[in-house]
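Student: Send me a single protein entry containing the residue sequence and its fold in token form, directly below this note:

Tutor:
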Amino acid sequence: MTEKTLSYFGLCRRAGKMALGHDAVMQAVRGKKAKICLLTNDASVRHERELKAADGTVPILSMPITSQELSFAIGKKVCVIAILDEGFAKAVLQQFEEEAT
């Protein structure tokens, strides 16, 4: 994962357009506010299962970073985040696609 993608996470958090942690993400998903959910590679299987059960329409992606690396980018130790802004979500998805190629 590039520094550019991690900087998007930091910007998104400072803009208040990110839900952090299991409970906040579940609330955002159930409230139809989450545009995309992201899990670290050390997140439990339970997190992904519960997110899929809460709402099947929100994209759920697994990131190739640990919760420690994510916490460095956003300033809080969590293993699941949700992006609440359409613009930030599109930018992150675009970065994922670019990194995959």
Summary: The longest strand covers residues 36-39.
